[in-house]
Design a protein that fits this description.
Elements (H helix, E strand, L loop, with lengths): L1 H22 L3 H41 L1 H4 L23 H10 L1 E7 L2 E7 L8 H12 L11 H6 L3
Antiparallel strand pairs: 1-2
The structure holds heme C.
The site of heme C (HEC) has 28 residues, from helix 3, helix 4, strand 1, strand 2 and helix 5.
Length: 162
């Protein structure tokens, strides 16, 4: 491991030196090499930061298709009068604890979303879905179809009691 990264370093060093030697006295070649190297380093550094969120959203997408889309629709539009839309719904992108409570323990009764009345029964998912799956699906619906709200962690889901 250690020897591998050392040899990688010396390889990079060789490439830089070779680049300089090749460029000869031309200063433009010499100055373009370090800047493209740092651009590559920036790209590499930002990749791990994006990866976990993307993975959560992907997992949430399959939880959604299996458990939620039959009522709320594949694109979160719901069915007017029967199933409320999740897309563009202020509750969905609002307080995370409130969303967790609804998905975990269900809700029923009068509800108005985007001027449309609902009075149905949202099933409770506690037990059917794990805290991790609930976190994933909420993260997904909060970041899909034009919704832009933050991710929810399994620990946050576990902390919400009935
Ligand atoms: C059997 C149909 C059905 C399924 C499946 C279902 N829901 Fe619902 N959901 C409803 C109904 C009906 C309501 C409105 C309940 C009411 O009138 O109080 C609702 C409400 C909601 C709300 C609250 C919306 C608001 O404006 O307050 C959220 C969030 C939600 N559902 C998310 C989900 C998620 C996530 C899943 C999948 C894990 C899911 N639902 C699966 C029928 C369903």
């Amino acid at each position: 491991m250690r020897r591998f990264s050392l040899s990688l370093l010396s390889l990079a060093g060789c490439a830089l030196i070779a680049g300089c030697a090749h460029g000869g006295s031309s200063s433009s070649t010499a100055s373009s090499a370090p800047s493209s190297a740092s651009a590559a380093a920036t790209a590499v550094a930002s990749a791990p930061a994006n990866a976990p969120n993307g993975a959560e959203a992907n997992a949430g997408g399959s939880v959604y298709v299996t458990n939620c889309s039959s009522c709320h629709g594949a694109t979160g539009d719901g069915l007017p009068g029967a199933f409320p839309p999740l897309a563009g719904n202020p509750v969905v992108v609002g307080d995370a604890t409130a969303v967790v409570h609804i998905v975990k323990y269900g809700r029923s009764g009068a509800l108005v979303v985007k001027g449309q009345r609902y009075s149905g029964v949202m099933p409770a998912w506690n037990g059917t879905l794990s805290d991790t799956q609930i976190a994933q699906v909420i993260t997904y619906v909060r970041a899909s179809w034009g919704n832009h709200a933050g991710a929810v962690s399994p620990a946050q889901v576990a902390a919400v009691k009935k």
